[in-house]
Write a structure and sequence with these properties.
homodimer; about 140 residues; alpha+beta; Arc Repressor Mutant, subunit A; Dna Ligase, domain 1; 2 domains; 3-stranded mixed β-sheet; two-stranded antiparallel sheet; 6 strands; globular; DNA-binding
Chain lengths: ~140, ~140
DNA sequence: CTACATGCAAATCCTTTGCATCCAC
DNA sequence: GTGGATGCAAAGGATTTGCATGTAG
């Protein structure tokens, strides 16, 4: 888990304006450690006494994303989620059947990255990618 | 390019009901060869004299997807696209800067598939995946 | 004939925008 | 003080749903 303070001070050094709403979003994302949808964020914030409008949550996660503090991942059917960018970058295995999301370490992407660079001169930004398929449990009871 | 007839007869053998609307969507997807959005489909169908409602197009591509005849790919900012599933499976490199979409052959995914199966007991369905990053041209003129 | 697909309209969900007000610096 | 952020309401786009009608088998 990442310290919200670290993110806050980095942003302040960059001359960003830090409102209580922005601090609250950063703290919630850090405290959770998990990936959260905009709705998740709004609910958790409201529960702890900081009621933000959806609009504001959208604006703040966009702002954090633009400044490289959070990553955005589209989990397809499971919606769009946000998480603080930590050194232990990872990806997501999303089960098409049960919807379970399992994290996988980043290095599984290294071979693919290398190949796309070499063969296609393409510089991939493979951050928190979602890979769909069948999880351990669901593949057992199916085709 | 895949013959629409092949898809139609396979579906008929499975006891599916083949309306003129369904045939038209299959034919348009096959004729195009490219990936099409629901809007693209509707426009092209209307142009050739088969006006379908958006609702119907949505229902038909969903139906085709459920029966394994087409793949659905979320290209992020560029929308959700559909294409017939052919033997020459491929994926998409989407440039974050210029939006260009380049196809890449399926085998670049083999190593990743193998690893997810072996290390995570996860059976990936990596069909027409979208990988974001910077294309050859845009990476040159940037960081 | 009959079950199922379509068309139409309206609802829903997610996200963005315009504008007045508010607050961090 | 002032520029930029927030709240509110409303717009926007993509997708889904309910129901009457049409049609493939």
């Amino acid at each position: 888990m990442i310290c919200a303070e670290a993110i806050v001070s980095r942003l302040r050094e960059q001359g960003e304006r830090l409102t209580i709403q922005r601090r609250a979003v950063i703290e919630t994302l850090c405290a959770s450690g998990d990936h959260l949808t905009v709705q998740d964020l709004q609910t958790q914030l409201a529960a702890q006494g900081t009621a933000l409008t959806e609009t504001t949550v959208y604006r703040i996660v966009q702002w954090l994303k633009d400044r490289g503090a959070v990553a955005q991942t589209d989990l397809g059917q499971s919606g769009v989620v946000y998480q603080v960018i930590d050194r232990t970058l990872h990806h997501h295995l999303v089960c098409l059947r049960c919807g379970r999301v399992v994290d996988v370490e980043d290095c599984v992407m290294d071979a693919l990255r290398e190949r796309l660079r070499r063969e296609y001169a393409f510089e991939p930004r493979i951050d928190h990618m979602a890979i769909f398929g069948l999880c351990r449990d669901c593949r057992a009871g199916h085709d």
